[in-house]
């Protein structure tokens, strides 16, 4: 942990009383076209009315265990978990714009999330010392020839492990940096306010603790998470997250300031703990999910799924419902984002040791999705 936060987290702790273990199971059978989905709710409300408007096409192929896609202006950037490389997409090819030093890929750890703010690229990775860290680089050069300036530490000391490292980072509409962390296979720490694991953290772009966080001096925004790998905001500021459960339920949550989401005492919805923990707005069998990156386009949440090998489209206004797209068509999908032209870019993840790699994997697929 950075010196600026170490003492503050421990002081704040006294004030506050993710991937499935079976994620490498056999691939599901393919299905053609969108399918209705309502999680476990059985809701009769209308699901997301979305459908592909064109045939998905490759943007680039030949990626090695890619994890995150972001845009720096018009330049798409990709992280590769195991190589530690950050790639810039230029036309139908990629170029290495830089490598993150001290990345220690092992299991699910390595170079994970990316986020861009102004002239800086923020990076989440598992280090040689065994912790997870956030650093930033000033971007140099111009589109097509971007590079990385000197590295600056933003936050360190996030517990790491072979699995459950979280790793998604994104800037919220408030300008703060949100960081998802996993329980790093130490379940009780998800409920420990003094630990950075099993949390969603919120810090300033420079790594300080905002004055309006739930607990003075602590970067914790919410707790009780197993392994959050997707965070996004709707137009009204509502924050959503996707979370890996263990064997029973994966989750879509609405994140509230200071909220406790129950892990490890609760997985999915729990009547027993209704008065203590916040229930997910939708939950799925891990066979159909293992959700990772998410994005929001218009009034629809798009969720990338690994074991479920699909994109799930969920209406912001009815988050207990949804529709499944591209089931089994591309294999595991790690991330999804909205490109500058409004299309969806899907990042496959079949070369990470758990997928069934196909010729040319991994790749970015581009597709236009229309609502009606």
UniProtKB/TrEMBL annotation:
Pfam families: GSDH
Keyword Signal: yes
Compositional bias ranges of the Low complexity kind: 31-55
Signal peptide feature range: 1-25
Gene3D superfamilies attached to this UniProt entry: TolB, C-terminal domain
UniProt keyword terms in alphabetical order: Signal
NAD is among the record's keywords: no
Domain Glucose/Sorbosone dehydrogenase: 63-354
InterPro entries: 6-blade_b-propeller_TolB-like, Glc/Sorbosone_DH, Quinoprot_gluc/sorb_DH_b-prop
Location of region: Disordered: 25-55
Protein name: Glucose dehydrogenase
Organism: Williamsia marianensis
């Amino acid at each position: 942990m950075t010196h600026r936060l170490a003492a503050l987290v421990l002081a704040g702790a006294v004030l506050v009383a993710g991937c499935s273990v079976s994620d490498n199971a056999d691939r599901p059978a393919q299905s053609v076209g969108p399918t209705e989905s309502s999680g476990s709710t059985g809701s009769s409300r209308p699901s997301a009315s979305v459908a592909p408007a064109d045939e998905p096409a490759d943007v680039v192929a030949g990626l090695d265990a890619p994890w995150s896609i972001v845009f720096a202006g018009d330049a798409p950037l990709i992280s590769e978990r195991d190589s530690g490389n950050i790639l810039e997409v230029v036309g139908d090819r990629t170029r290495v714009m830089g490598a993150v030093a001290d990345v220690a890929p092992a299991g699910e750890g390595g170079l994970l999330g990316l986020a861009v703010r102004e002239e800086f690229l923020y990076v989440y990775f598992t280090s040689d010392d065994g912790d997870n860290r956030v650093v930033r680089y000033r971007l140099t050069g111009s589109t097509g020839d971007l590079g990385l300036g000197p590295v600056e530490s933003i936050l360190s000391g996030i517990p790491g492990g072979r699995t459950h490292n979280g790793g998604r980072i994104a800037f919220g509409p408030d300008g703060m940096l949100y960081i998802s962390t996993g329980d790093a296979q130490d379940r009780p720490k998800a409920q420990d306010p003094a630990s950075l694991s099993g949390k969603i953290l919120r810090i300033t772009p420079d790594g300080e603790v905002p004055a309006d966080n739930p607990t003075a001096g602590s970067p914790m925004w919410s707790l009780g998470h197993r392994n959050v790998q997707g965070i996004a905001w709707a137009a009204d500021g509502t924050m959503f997250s996707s979370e890996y459960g263990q064997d029973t339920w994966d989750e879509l949550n609405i994140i509230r300031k200071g909220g406790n989401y129950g892990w490890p005492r609760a997985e999915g919805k729990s009547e027993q703990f209704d008065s203590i923990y916040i229930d997910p707005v939708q939950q799925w069998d891990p066979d159909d999910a293992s959700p990772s990156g998410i994005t929001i386009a218009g009034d629809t949440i798009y969720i990338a799924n690994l074991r479920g090998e699909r994109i799930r489209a969920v209406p912001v206004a009815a988050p207990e419902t949804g529709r499944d797209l591209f089931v089994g068509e591309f294999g595991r999908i790690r991330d999804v984002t909205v490109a500058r032209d409004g299309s969806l870019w899907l990042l496959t993840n079949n070369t990470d040791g758990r997928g069934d790699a196909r010729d040319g994997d991994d790749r970015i697929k581009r597709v236009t999705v229309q609502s009606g």
